[in-house]
Amino acid sequence: MISAHGVGTRTDLPIPVELAVTAATLALLISFGVLGLLWRTPRLRGGEAGRPLALPGVPGLLGAARLVVAVIAVVVVAAGFAGPATVDRNLAPWTFYVLFWAGLVPASLLFGPVWRALNPLRLLHAGLARTLRLDPARGVLDLPARLGLRPAAVFLAAFAWLELVHPSASDPRVVAWFLTGYGLVQVAAACVFGRGWFARGDGFEVYSTLLGALAPLGRRADGRLVLRNPLDGLDTIRPDPGLVAVVVVLVGTTAFDGLSRSSLWRDTVPPGPLVGTLGLVAVTGVVAALYLLGTWRPDPVRGPERAPLPAAFAHTIVPIAAGYAIAHYFSLVVFDGQQAVVLASDPFGTGADLFGTATRAIDYAVVGTAAIAVVQLAGIVLGHLAAAVAAHDRAVKLFPPTIAVRIQYPLLAAMVVLTCGAVGLIFAP
Amino acid sequence: MQTVRVTYAGGQVTGDTGRVAVPLGRTVDVVVTSDVADEIHLHGYDRSANVPAGGSATLTFTADIPGVFEIELEELGRELTQLRVS
User: What is the pTM of this model?
Assistant: First the structure.
C-alpha cells in the first residue's frame, strides 16, 4: 500500500478551480456577514441550551457496546501481530487508520464523545486498578492542572508522526506495536493519575470529545440528554490550558497530510523521515503562528478568573479542524473503509470467511468524484461558518460591543487563511 | 490506448514520473523496466506484475475508476509514478 500515509489505495482528484474560488469567496463573505450582522449580546446559551430527549435507556447497552469495542481492539492488535504480514491482507492498519482514526470524525460529529464512552483503555484501567488495589478515580499522584490537555496534544502529535512520516506506517506489525505501546502508556498513566487522565492525556478520547461537542446530541449542564444546536454544544468546550495545543496539532497534522500528497511536495522535496518530520513540525508551526497572531493580544478587560484569549477562543477552531478532517478523509472512509470489512472475514489469514465478505473488493462506484468534491467543500465552508459565528458570540460574551468587534478582526483573518489553506490543499494537483 | 513508461535503475526512477493524466475509460499500458526483480503494483485497481532484474513488465488495464493512484515497486516500497484518472 502507499507507504507514505497509513493506508490508502487512492487519493482524491484536485477539485475544479471554480469550486475552489467559490469556497474561498464564501469563506470571506461569511466572515464579513458575521461582523456585519453584529449581534451585540451573546446568543449561544452553551450548557443551558437544548431540548430534553426522552430516549428509552436500555440497561446494559453501554456496557455491552464497551465490551464489543474492547473485543474488536484485542482482535485488531492480535491480527496485527499474528495475521498476514502484508498490509493488503491484514485488517489491523485498515481498521486503525480508516475505521477508527478517520471514522471517529463522523461518529463523534453525529453522536457525541463516543470514544469517551467506549474507550477500551478505560475498561482495562478499571480492571487493573482493582487488581493492583489502586484508587481508580484518584490514582497515586495529582496531574497538575496547569498541564491541561497538553498530554493529549503530545500523543496526537506522536500518532500523526506515525501515520504521516514513519516509513512503515502501514505495516501491520508496526500498527500492532504502536497500539500496544500506546495502550500500556495510557493505562500506566491512568494508574498513576487516576481515570481523569484519559480526558486529558488520551489523544483519541480528547479528539472525540472535542468533535463530539458539535453533535446535535449532548448533555445539558443539569445532566439531561438534549437535542441542541451544535453551536451551543461548541460553546460548552472549556478553555483548558493546552486546548490551543490540541486544536493546532489537529489542524496542522491534517494539513500536512494533504500537503504531503500533493505534487508540489513530492516533486520538490526528497523523501525520507527526516524531511517528513521537519515538514510536519513546520506546517503545525505555521498553524500555531496563524492562530496566535489572531488571538494573542493584551486583554483589555482581563479579570483574574478569565482564561487567556488564545484559550478562550480555541474552541472556535474545532469546526475548522472538523472541516479539514472531512475534506481529507471522507473518500478514505467510504472506499478504504470497505477493505476493513473485507479483511475482517479472515483476520488471521487462515482462509476463513467469517462474515461472507472475504472475496469482495472495494467498490469504487459507491460515491462519484463530484459528490466527493461537494462533501469536501461543504465540510470546509460549514466549518468556517461555525467557527466565525462561535468567535463572534464568544467575543460579545467576553467584551463590550465596541471592543468585541475589534478583537475579532485578526481572528477572523486567521480563520480565512486557514479555510483558504484547506481549499488550496484539496485544489493542489 | 496510452502508454506510460517508467525505468528504475541504480535507485533512480526516470521516465513518466510525477503525475500522469489519464482520461477516464482509456486503456493504459504501464511498461516498467527495472534493474532489480520486484513486483509492480497499481493501487486501487489492484493489478500486479512481476518484473525480472534487467527486464521489463507491462500492466494493462482500463482506467474506469477516477482518482489518483500510485504505482509502486512493492518489495522496495518505492513509488514509480502516479496516475491521475479523470
Answer: 0.94
